[in-house]
UniProtKB/TrEMBL annotation:
<feature type="domain" description="Gfo/Idh/MocA-like oxidoreductase N-terminal">
    <location>
        <begin position="11"/>
        <end position="140"/>
    </location>
</feature>
<dbReference type="InterPro" id="IPR036291">
    <property type="entry name" value="NAD(P)-bd_dom_sf"/>
</dbReference>
<comment type="similarity">
    <text>Belongs to the Gfo/Idh/MocA family.</text>
</comment>
<dbReference type="InterPro" id="IPR000683">
    <property type="entry name" value="Gfo/Idh/MocA-like_OxRdtase_N"/>
</dbReference>
<dbReference type="InterPro" id="IPR051317">
    <property type="entry name" value="Gfo/Idh/MocA_oxidoreduct"/>
</dbReference>
<feature type="domain" description="Gfo/Idh/MocA-like oxidoreductase C-terminal">
    <location>
        <begin position="153"/>
        <end position="382"/>
    </location>
</feature>
<dbReference type="InterPro" id="IPR004104">
    <property type="entry name" value="Gfo/Idh/MocA-like_OxRdtase_C"/>
</dbReference>
<dbReference type="Pfam" id="PF01408">
    <property type="entry name" value="GFO_IDH_MocA"/>
</dbReference>
<protein>
    <submittedName>
        <fullName>Gfo/Idh/MocA family oxidoreductase</fullName>
    </submittedName>
</protein>
<dbReference type="Pfam" id="PF02894">
    <property type="entry name" value="GFO_IDH_MocA_C"/>
</dbReference>
């Protein structure tokens, strides 16, 4: 159980993006600092320099450390004896590569929003640079931090569902089912900012990572994808896609990704079908995991209860019956990022895995392969 105690100094941390009115700045700041492993000391929060400085001041930071641009921040912070050690990148997609590159060149550890970058070439470049500089790069596939995701992983790894046969995943919300959703979502339909994909890169990479976590031995070998711009003004970017995947051990996976699933609030769920049982997890009820054996009655496993794997209980912050949510899930990942940055060895009873640069790069490659397949009317494309 996490109770807020720590015996280490917080990592001096900064945020690029995530400024006033942004979708995810607040959850990054809350999650990173929740357990005291990171301390926000600096930032370049906004594309408009004056607003960035003003926002930092309103957060209570030292005005001298509220910067107009990330370049200025990296340069001036590197000259301080108490300069930043890690940075989170929470800007629109097209900036992730250049900011991540600049951060690594400044010897900073990085937590980057998804997608890590816009091409495999960029991902390989970042991976090499991170290795050379011996820096940690985490990628915020935040849903994976929920404890019941770890429970599902342990159940699959310990053979509790038998051989994995089928994976059915979806992230299909209805937030963009009308032609003109909120103004602040508009960059997601612009290929110059979002990159070559809308929903595959924005949404699909989340269930893709959940598949990797819950079925760690799974290696996708081939993908077949068709994608559509249901709201036609979004072409060439898709707002809906269907992806089928074949894996190394014969398991088949299917994913529906959509932003035009009218009426759906969120719609992230994953079902792993085994030869003996199935497990199903849904982000809208993250404290639960449904277990359905071939014979007998289905069971709803509940976060925080006796009988769960120790690693699925290690990051509880409050006893069973109370709800924990996305902020806690992200805080779990931030704790693991902090452990990785410090080079700590975690006990067997704590999850030590976290979404890293390889996971980020794999997601970028997967999006590329899906696009390739869709350009061939859904023909099979090898992943590697
Ligand atoms: P947003 O448009 O709401 O906010 C972007 C923020 O970045 C704004 O504050 C903007 O002023 C700032 N910004 C833009 N250019 C900048 C620059 N050059 N320097 C400093 N700040 C700059 O975008 P949103 O929705 O917050 O998305 C940001 C990123 O987070 C995207 O890559 C998106 O894919 C990702 N995201 C991830 C989620 C997750 O579950 N992990 C959920 C939502 C978004």
């Amino acid at each position: 159980m996490i109770d807020g105690r720590r015996n280490v100094r917080p990592i001096r941390w900064a945020l690029v993006g995530g400024g006033a009115g942004s979708a995810i700045g607040y959850i990054h700041r809350c999650a990173a600092t929740r357990d005291g492993y990171f301390q926000l000391v600096s930032g370049a929060f906004d594309v408009i320099p004056e607003q960035s400085k003003q926002f930092g001041k309103e957060l209570g930071l030292d005005p001298a450390r509220c910067y107009g641009t990330y370049k200025e921040m990296f340069e001036l912070e590197s000259q301080r004896s108490d300069g930043i050690e890690a940075v989170t990148i929470a800007t629109p997609n097209n900036l992730h590569f250049e900011i991540c590159k600049a951060a690594l060149e400044s010897n900073l550890h990085v937590i980057c929003e998804k997608p890590l970058c816009l091409s495999s070439r960029e991902a390989q470049y970042l991976r090499k640079l991170a290795r050379e500089r011996e820096r940690v790069v985490g990628v915020m596939f935040g849903y994976a931090g929920h404890q019941m995701v770890e429970q599902a992983r342990q159940m699959v790894c310990n053979g509790e569902i038998g051989d994995v046969r089928i994976i059915k995943a979806e992230f299909a919300h209805g937030g963009c089912s009308q032609a003109s959703p909120q103004e602040k979502l508009q960059w997601r339909f612009n290929p110059n900012v979002a990159g070559p994909s809308f929903v595959l890169a924005d949404l699909g990479v989340h269930p893709l990572y959940l598949m990797r976590v819950m079925v760690p031995d799974l290696k996708i070998e081939k993908v077949s994808c068709i994608r559509q711009s249901i709201v036609q003004s979004r072409a060439p970017l898709e707002d809906n896609a269907f992806v089928t995947m074949e894996s190394n051990d014969g398991a088949i996976a299917f994913m529906w990704v959509s932003a035009v699933n009218t009426g759906s609030q969120h719609g992230l769920r994953i079902r792993i079908v085994g030869s003996e049982a199935s497990v199903e997890w849904c982000a809208e009820e993250p404290n639960k995991l449904r277990y359905e054996p071939a014979r007998g009655f289905p069971i709803i496993l509940q976060r925080g209860t006796h009988g769960l794997y120790p690693s699925a209980r290690a990051e509880d912050r409050i006893a069973e019956g109370h709800s924990e949510g996305l902020f806690e899930a992200w805080a779990n990942l931030y704790r693991r990022f902090a452990s990785a940055i410090r080079g700590e060895t975690r006990t067997m009873d704590e999850p030590s895995w976290y979404p890293d640069i390889d996971d980020g790069a794999e997601a970028v490659l997967w999006v590329e392969r899906c696009i390739e397949s869709s350009e061939r009317n859904g023909g099979w494309v090898n992943m590697y």
